[in-house]
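Structure in, sequence out. Go:
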């Protein structure tokens, strides 16, 4: 596989990941953080950072809209729920274990 093919495959995989996360609105960011150590907001930040590395400026809000498939404020209003005690506890434990 040459570098161009690798980049094309990675792009397809990333787009499938975004679509999957956009369709799984039942999965909260805290659940993603607790299981994998990253969430939609992390992907948004990485997207913005990668754009900067290539000489493009994509601000946080635009990157979030790309990742969420809609403005972040709309996603939060429609799909975000309050974290329960178990989710918060797991998150606190994961932060403690990571540092």
């Amino acid at each position: 596989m040459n570098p161009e093919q690798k980049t094309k495959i990675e792009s397809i995989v990333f787009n499938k990941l975004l679509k999957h996360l956009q369709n799984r609105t039942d999965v909260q960011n805290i659940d993603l953080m607790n299981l994998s150590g990253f969430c939609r907001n992390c992907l948004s930040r990485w997207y913005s950072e990668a754009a900067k590395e290539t000489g493009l400026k994509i601000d946080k809000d635009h990157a979030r809209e790309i990742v969420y498939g809609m403005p972040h404020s709309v996603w939060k209003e429609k799909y975000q729920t309050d974290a329960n005690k178990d989710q918060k506890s797991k998150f606190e434990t994961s932060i403690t274990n990571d540092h």
